[in-house]
Amino acid sequence: MSAPVYPGIPNQGPYSMPQPGQSVAPYPVPQGGYGDPSQAPPPGFNMSYNQGPPPVMYQPGPVGPGQAPGPEYGGPPGHAPGPEYGGAPGAISPASAPVGVPPGLEYLTQIDQILIHQKVELLEAFIGFETNNQYEIKNSLGQKIYKAKEKNDCCTRNCCGSLRSFDMKIKDNMDREVIRLIRPFRCVSCWCPCCLQEMEVQAPPGTTIGYVKQDWHPCLPKFSIQGANKETLMKLEGPCFACNCCGDVNFELKGKDGDKTIGRISKQWSGLLKEVFTDTDNFGIQFPLDLDVKMKAVLMGACFLIDFMFFEKVGEANQRSTVFS
After folding, report:
1. Closest alpha carbon to 245 in 225, 275, 204, 266
2. For the segment 249-263, what is each residue's pLDDT rounded down to a tens digit?
């Protein structure tokens, strides 16, 4: 009897029938072997440019049509999400997340820059009626990883202008709130150093991980990036005249002593038409890759605070450009 031949496998001869007493491997071993199963694949992105878009871990993974959002963060202790957690290939559960990383912020451990784009509000652009600001937060590849929306009332937005208090919810692509920013009403004039700007950052909501506080200075916009116990960990310093006339405005991120630059927050030039006729702003945030993920989240809060302080226009009021105005 001849040995069977399996169709569909090119350049491969028929399998030989085993003889009595002869052991045969159940499956053919691929050339080069299977590799060491204890060795994990290298972390990060695949930087090959000839193999299509590089894969992205954890995020992004938007909610598809008809797909319900995943469970909210900050649930009762000991609650472990089921298999539906994440809903996207590559998503991980909080139980397997890196130690000390708030749930939903695992993706921030892999990146060293963030792009923030404010969405155009047509009602605000045409009639000047101030609406809640909305933003898309993207990685360097332009993929949306989070979204943010301001939350307050109509009277606060249109009467208090850029000084208005608000809560801002930052959600992941599964529509779960991962970060909450809380900005109280404060003064912005350099002549009132007792009531300067600040913002509290929570991740997950209800757990404070840091603060952004304005430091008094007669000329320069300066901020302290603080931890949960209000200890200063980094400094942020902007130019004396924060106006992006056909160019970017950089706020330099420095160490605790303020001597070495380790990153920056940049207000990017959006083009003449957008800058003049809309309130849409684009920002870029750069920070060390190994920076504590909680501080990366606090820097996002600092970016939003800077946007409201210096680049927010409400009605006929012009945006501020210095700490004096």
Report:
1. 275
2. 999 999 998 889 999
